[in-house]
Amino acid sequence: MNTDQVISFVVAGTGALATVLTAVATYFLFRVTRVLAVETKRMAEASAQPHVVATLVPNRWSLTHFDFNVDNTGNATAYDIAIHFDPPLTSGEPRSGDAIPLQRLSVLKPGQGLSSYLCEFAHLKGNVYQVEVTWRKAANASEIQSNIYTLSMNDHSGVSRLGNDPLIQLASSLKHIDERLSPVLRGSVRLKVDSFSSDDRQGERDRDRRAIEELRKKNFPDGDASSDQSE
What we know:
Layout (H helix, E strand, L loop, with lengths): L2 H45 L4 E7 L6 E8 L5 E9 L17 E5 L4 E8 L7 E9 L8 E8 L13 H21 L11 H22 L4 H7 L1
Antiparallel strand pairs: 1-2, 2-5, 3-4, 3-6, 6-7
């Protein structure tokens, strides 16, 4: 085998090796791209799901009273929502048919929440609820999605608060102002207003001048003070 044949064989072998390496690299690139596409689609679908949560939280006005809250914390609208508590919720307020509101909802938009006063904390203290929330991703969807979890009211035992919510304080102040002004606006109470004119101010200056003059005459009856000052 001469030199030209050896060079041709080496060049041919190098080209074949390069072709094989390119094919292998293309295959692995295809696999990686496919995996990334599948994961991207899965993440997009997961992030575009509704997620409904039902909780019992302290009322903004009082820590000893609790509200029943239902919130859609997901990124899609939830339809045909049903909420079940075990043991069942009981209300501290008389209601028609003893029905607890918000346990059946037709629709909740992303980020939307509904709240209703439930009862005093004494009716809930120590209770541990098994909560099941179901909903549909679309109004006509056959698949029902669910969220099952434990809600313990022991989480709120011994909780205290220092001061009030600034918005609550503002609302209380505005309510107090309204209560004070309501009789005036209705005309049942009249405001007492002291008004002064220019004549009143001039009369006040004259009275001050006379008072100073009388004080001077009382302290210097013989006019000694004025004669000393002139000297």
